[in-house]
Here is the input.
Amino acid sequence: MSELHAPSMALLQAAADDPVTYAQHWKTAHQRPVIGSFPMNFPVELAHAAGALPVIIQESRTPITEGRSLLAEFYCGYTRSIADQAAIGELDVFDAFVAADHCVQLLGAVDVIRYARPGKPVHFAQLTTAMDNASTRPRVENRMADLRAEVETVIGSPISDDELSASIVAFNRNRQLLREFYGLRRSGRVRITASEMQLLVKSSMVMDIDEHTTILRTILSELVVADAPGDVVRIHLSGHFCHAPRPEILDVIEESGALVVDDDLYTGYRYISTDVPEDGDPFAALSSWYLERNLNAPCPTRVTSEVDWDTYLLDSVAASHAAGVVVLMAKFCEPHMLYYPELRKALDEHGIPLLLIETEHEGIPLEKLRTQMETFIERIRRSAAPVAV
Ligand code: SF4
Here is the structure.
């Protein structure tokens, strides 16, 4: 049974399940613009500082209809869903769209928005992917300046240093609270299911950040601290860029005898891993955030010479005492597919059991997944006693 404050979780669920309606209500109440952004690198603090509601656009559960003719079938489910939402007018609540790149499929989806909604401002900032070259920082700062100018144009007024500093503090506090939940889950003192953790993070991507922070504080103050659950296998969940895995997939994983104790999902730890520096020039701090994030949660779409995802994953598994890794991969997610062999090799070399689950926008057969997971858990149980915390 969930140990998280039910009325607060219900508020987060409503926003996470229907971000467009939430944005519409917010817009009516505040008479301010709503800016839609895409994973994984746009600094939402910029839109917030401009007085807009920043919303990271989510995959919709709606079956893809009109979008079918706008992007090929071999695009990932997230991008096909974005194309469909744009085509059927579900994204019309947004006053502008901003993307800080990482993936060619996402760029395709952004082009569909341009095509389907030609009246909407759409800005794309190409952020350098080689993170520690001498020339990278000035280039990133230039792109951040472009994003700032675009947001200021949409809003019709400049963003001050003080406004941006206040927004940075607001988002840092929110990320810090979410990381507290991660710490509690890792410690085993609080039972937070994988779908609950996802809800905590996903709702932070779409809600007014101050409202979200207030709700997080309520949940934390009502937390029931308890002994770690008994006969379970501790699991690290890895991967799944850009959009949240379906909650029913996360539930089946845990119903099969696993306890998710950590993750590097985008709608998870990857999103909240790094704060924006609060000292110095706040605009320069956004570039620092972009460059430092890859140190804290390496991404296969970026290159930093001293870090890589496989080493990070091995370290995370050791830190959380996970007995195995479940990789969730969105079908046709090219950056993930290309990097996966490296992860597999590293985990194999260290004797860490691994299960790959491919997800699709249209859903996957849950009973097949249940069988796969039960077999995986059984394999871990037979190969070694679950690691004691
Ligand atoms: S990184 Fe993967 S999930 Fe994200 S847009 Fe690209 S292909 Fe889709």
